[in-house]
């Protein structure tokens, strides 16, 4: 278990603390959730955002995942953290100052790590 090794714990400890059976698929497992998100998402100091605490060695499924307005979790995050909504046509709407803040955040110089 690569993540267990990187965390400095045994495979058994990792399985007990961070893994649960994946519903609907026999012999499949997934990382635990905490407050509706991956247990490895941790708060970014000074913000309301979260970032992956195991980013350098996160699982392939996480590396391959891409954000998008078609994803419910992304739309939920826009509402929760930015106060913005996505219309049926895919347009982001909200107060002008929140839209500016969000657009500014999306600029590469506006962040060091890709928060979730």
Folded structure, characterized:
This protein is an alpha+beta fold. It has 5 helices and 8 strands, in the order ααββββββααββα. The chain has a two-stranded antiparallel sheet with strand order 1-2. A two-stranded antiparallel sheet has the order 3-4. A two-stranded antiparallel sheet has the order 5-6. The two termini are 24 Å apart.
Class based on secondary structure composition and strand pairing: alpha+beta
The rounded distance between the terminal residues' Cα atoms is 24 Å
Outline type: elongated
One letter per element, helices H and strands E, the order comes to HHEEEEEEHHEEH
The spatial strand order of the largest sheet comes to 1-2
Q: What does the largest sheet look like?
A: 2 strands, antiparallel
List low-confidence stretches: none
- Mean pLDDT across all amino acids: 86
* Residues in β-strands, percent: 15-25%
| Count of DSSP H/I helices | 5
**How many strand segments?**
8
- The helix fraction, in percent, is 25-40%
**Rg, please?**
17 Å
